[in-house]
Amino acid sequence: MKLGVIADDFTGASDIALMLSEAGMQTAQFVGVPSSTEASGSGTNCDAGVISLKSRTEPAVDAIRQSLAASDWLLSQGCEQIVFKVCSTFDSTDEGNIGPVTQALAERLGEQTVLVCPAFPENGRTVYQGHLFVGETLLNESGMQNHPLTPMRDPDIRRVLSRQTTWPVSHIAHRTVRQGAESIGDAINAKTGSMAILDAITDEDLIAIGKAAAGRRLVTGGSGIAIGLPANFGITPHQHSWTGIGGKAVVLSGSCSTATRGQVSHYRQKAPSREIMVEDVIGGWVSIDELVEWTISQDEPPLLFSSADPETVSQVQQRFGRDKSASAIENLFYDLAAALVGAGVERIVVAGGETSGAVVSGIKASTFEIGPRIAPGVPALSVAGQPLALALKSGNFGGPNFFEDALHVLRAGS
Ligand SMILES: Nc1ncnc2c1ncn2[C@@H]1O[C@H](COP(=O)(O)OP(=O)(O)OP(=O)(O)O)[C@@H](O)[C@H]1O
Ligand SMILES: O=C(O)[C@@H](O)C(=O)CO
C-alpha cells in the first residue's frame, strides 16, 4: 500500500476511494481499522487503503484516538503518505474535529506543515480567499448552516480551523496556486510550522496542489485533494472491473440536506415510501420486523426515510435534544439494515454520512471493493465476501434522480 486515507465518515471514504480508483489506484475501503484476520485478506494487496471512521461528530479525544490507530495501521502496511479526508463543506464544530485530528496526526507523523484544502470543484465546492463556497453561495448560506449536527455558520475556513487547533493557520492564495506546483512548494516552505489553507477553484489547481504535496507525510482535505496524488506514485488512470448485483433493493435516507430532501420527494412519486419519525422511534412505536416485512413485500425498491426540513429537525431537537434525536434515528437504521440483509436484501442505497456509518456497522461489513461512479463523489461498492452492493451518498451529492440511478448502477455494474 502506498497511499493511506483516514476518512472521518463513511460517505466521505467512498467519495475519496472513487477519486483514487478512477485515477488508477487499486483501492480498498475498510470499515474501521482492519483486524489482523481482515488484514491478511486480499484487501490489503492494493495501492491505496481508505479507512472509514465515524469520527466527524465524536468527542475530539475519541476522534484522535481512532485516527492515530488508523494512521499506525496504514503506516504498517507501507503507506508513504496519509490523507485525512474531511468533508468538502468542512463539517465540524468549534471543538473539532478537523483541527485536533490534523494536529495529532502531524505530530505523530513528524510533519511540520500541513496542506489543508476541502475544495471539490466538480461538486461545486471551491475555496477562494480562504472562504468556502458551495456553488455560487458562501458555505454559511448554502443550507449547511442548518445541518443537524455540524451547522456551518462561518465561511472563512481559516477562522474555523483556527478555533480548533493550537497551531497557527496560514493561507496560500489562489494567485500562488495558479502559478503551479513550484510556487505552491515555495509558499509551503515559507509557512513552515502551520496548517496552510490553500485556495482552489478548479481541478487544475488541485492537480498542482497534489504535485506540490509529493513526499509530504500528511495532507488534509476533501476528496479533491487526492486528484493529483496518484501521479506522484507513477500511477495513471484506468478502469477496474466490477460486477453488479440484481437482488432485492431498498433506499434508506437519514440525511436532512437540501439535495437529499429533493431526491426523497422525487423518488416518493415513483416508489413506495415510509417516513420514520423521531418521536415514534423514541416512543418505541416503530417495529423493525414490521418495516422489514413491508419492505420485502414491495415490487419496486421502497424508500424508508427520516429526512426532514430544518424547522422539523429543530423542533425535534428542542424536544428531545440533538444527540438523542440523532442516535435514535441512527440506531434505528443500524437495526433495520441488519434485519434487511438478514431477510435477503442485496442492494442498499443510503443517503447521509452518519446514516451510512450506522447502516454499514449494522450489516457488519468490513471491506468494500470500489465500483463505477454513480454520481460525482459516489461510487457503487460491493461488500467483500457477501452478495451485497451499496451506494453511500453524501448528504449534498447527486442530482434529483440519484436514487434510481444508484439502484440501476448497483444492478448493472460497469
Ligand atoms: N427527522 C430528524 N430529526 C432530527 N435529526 C435527524 C432526523 N433525521 C435524521 N436525523 C439525524 O441527522 C443526521 C444526518 O446526518 P447524515 O450525516 O446522515 O446526513 P448529512 O449530514 O446530510 O450527510 P453528509 O454527512 O454525508 O453530508 C443523522 O445523525 C441523523 O440521525
Ligand atoms: O466531502 C464531501 O462532501 C463528502 O465526501 C462528505 O464527506 C460528506 O459527508
TrEMBL record:
<protein>
    <recommendedName>
        <fullName>3-oxo-tetronate kinase</fullName>
        <ecNumber>2.7.1.217</ecNumber>
    </recommendedName>
</protein>
<dbReference type="InterPro" id="IPR010737">
    <property type="entry name" value="4-carb_acid_sugar_kinase_N"/>
</dbReference>
<comment type="function">
    <text>Catalyzes the ATP-dependent phosphorylation of 3-oxo-tetronate to 3-oxo-tetronate 4-phosphate.</text>
</comment>
<keyword id="KW-0418">Kinase</keyword>
<dbReference type="Pfam" id="PF07005">
    <property type="entry name" value="SBD_N"/>
</dbReference>
<feature type="domain" description="Four-carbon acid sugar kinase N-terminal">
    <location>
        <begin position="3"/>
        <end position="228"/>
    </location>
</feature>
<dbReference type="InterPro" id="IPR031475">
    <property type="entry name" value="NBD_C"/>
</dbReference>
<keyword id="KW-0808">Transferase</keyword>
<comment type="similarity">
    <text>Belongs to the four-carbon acid sugar kinase family.</text>
</comment>
<feature type="domain" description="Four-carbon acid sugar kinase nucleotide binding">
    <location>
        <begin position="250"/>
        <end position="403"/>
    </location>
</feature>
<dbReference type="InterPro" id="IPR037051">
    <property type="entry name" value="4-carb_acid_sugar_kinase_N_sf"/>
</dbReference>
<dbReference type="InterPro" id="IPR042213">
    <property type="entry name" value="NBD_C_sf"/>
</dbReference>
<dbReference type="GO" id="GO:0016301">
    <property type="term" value="F:kinase activity"/>
</dbReference>
<dbReference type="Pfam" id="PF17042">
    <property type="entry name" value="NBD_C"/>
</dbReference>
<dbReference type="InterPro" id="IPR050007">
    <property type="entry name" value="OtnK"/>
</dbReference>
<dbReference type="GO" id="GO:0005524">
    <property type="term" value="F:ATP binding"/>
</dbReference>
<keyword id="KW-0119">Carbohydrate metabolism</keyword>
<keyword id="KW-0547">Nucleotide-binding</keyword>
<keyword id="KW-0067">ATP-binding</keyword>
